[in-house]
Amino acid sequence: MKRSDRLYALIAILKDGRLYRAQDLAIRLSVSLRTIYRDMETLASSGIPVEGERGVGYTARAAITLPPLNLTKTELEALHIGLAAVGSSMEGDLRNAAETLSAKIDAVLPVDNHNVTKSFGFAVYPFADAAQGFRHLTPLRKAIRSRQKLRLSFSNGQQSDVHPLKIDYWGRVWTCIVWNERQEEFNSLRVDQIEAVSILPSLFVDEPGKRLKDYIATQ
């Protein structure tokens, strides 16, 4: 049995709340006692509510185990907006829960580590930082769908006229892939660093060298 399968099996056994001796678990899973001890330490360190000690036994506090979920990017975006709101406005247990839940989601998201490191690094920013860009997500997404040109203003006073192409999500940070008309190149912009989004009175069309697929081809 693979280690990951064994850990899931242990969770399934312990979640009924009963006390299990390590020796009985070792026999049941056909592994050594030392392996069970290591697995319990792994489960506890990963946030599974396991309680117990060697020589006494182990149990799991009541917890909700969700089945695997397939989320769209929009659903994931909505989930993190909610977590960010709780994390930035609450204190105590709710804030801690928002942080640990967000960390669990980040840990299982598929990430292209090569591209992330090359561009801006895998982001684990405070909730307050990420919240700065939430208000821009809706107009950016509408502009992408309608091919609307935008003028983006930044906190440093700079402005860019862009063709918005795609919104990407990394950890708790959203970026927008754009074609920058003035620089005549693609940019990956952090949404939380945008101060204002203004709609320009024109649309853009797909032009060779300025399309999303052209950006993807350069990566």
Report what the structure shows.
This protein has 219 residues and is α+β, with helices and mostly antiparallel strands. Among the domains are: 3-60, Arc Repressor Mutant, subunit A, CATH 1.10.10; 131-218, SH3 type barrels (Roll). Helices cover 45% and strands 23% of the residues. The protein is built from nine helices and seven strands, in the order H-H-H-E-E-H-H-H-H-H-E-E-E-E-E-H. It has helices at 3-14, 22-29, 33-45, 73-89, 93-108, 113-119, 127-131, 134-146, 212-218, and strands at 50-53, 57-60, 148-154, 159-170, 173-180, 185-190, 194-203. Strands 6-5-4-3-7 form a five-stranded antiparallel β-sheet. It has a two-stranded antiparallel ribbon with strand order 1-2. A hairpin with a 4-residue loop joins strand 5 (173-180) and strand 6 (185-190). Helix 2 packs across helix 3 (33-45) and helix 4 packs antiparallel against helix 5. The longest helix is centred in the middle third of the chain and has 17 residues, at 73-89. The model is unreliable at 112-127 (pLDDT under 50).
Describe the structure using short key phrases:
9 helices, elongated, 219 residues, 7 strands, alpha+beta
- The total of helices stands at 9
CATH topology of the domain at 131-218: SH3 type barrels
Overall pLDDT confidence: 79
H-E string:
HHHEEHHHHHEEEEEH
The N- and C-terminal alpha carbons lie at a distance of 39 Å
Shape: elongated
Residue share in helices? Answer: 40-55%
Give the helix/strand class: alpha+beta
Rounded radius of gyration (Å): 23 Å
Main β-sheet description: 5 strands, antiparallel
Assigned CATH architecture of the domain at 131-218: Roll
